[in-house]
Amino acid sequence: MAITHHVHAATYTVGGSGGWTFNVDIWPKGKRFKAGDTLVFNYDATAHNVVAVNRGGYSSCSAPAGAKVYKSGKDQIQLVKGQNYFICSVSGHCQSGMKIAINAA
């Protein structure tokens, strides 16, 4: 008799009810993320965006050439194993804490 475990990916709304906004950089604290989990970014698409960046882009608040930019206001992004970095590339927003770094197991 074999025992199988089905692992279901979780869905997280970035920033909770407040959504993707300023000072969201502390939101991941205390949460355990896994590769395959989905992040939902809810925001005003006329004021913000979501850019998947590398560590350098996260640290410098700049989007490298060719970075994937999401602009729908209701973006769903699946986490990959390891570090995942996201910023808002609108001028001054990342510097105001509109960025997250997530380590997915």
TrEMBL record:
Keywords, in A-Z order: Copper, Disulfide bond, Metal-binding
Heme found in the keyword field: no
MF-aspect GO terms: electron transfer activity; metal ion binding
Superkingdom, taxonomy of origin: Eukaryota
Record carries keyword Transmembrane: no
Residues covered by the Phytocyanin domain: 10-105
PROSITE patterns in UniProt: PHYTOCYANIN
GO cellular component, one term: plasma membrane
InterPro entries per record: Cupredoxin (IPR008972), Phytocyanin-like (IPR039391), Phytocyanin_dom (IPR003245), Plantacyanin (IPR041844)
Coiled-coil blocks: none
Protein known as: Basic blue protein
Upper classification of the organism: Eukaryota, Viridiplantae, Streptophyta, Embryophyta, Tracheophyta
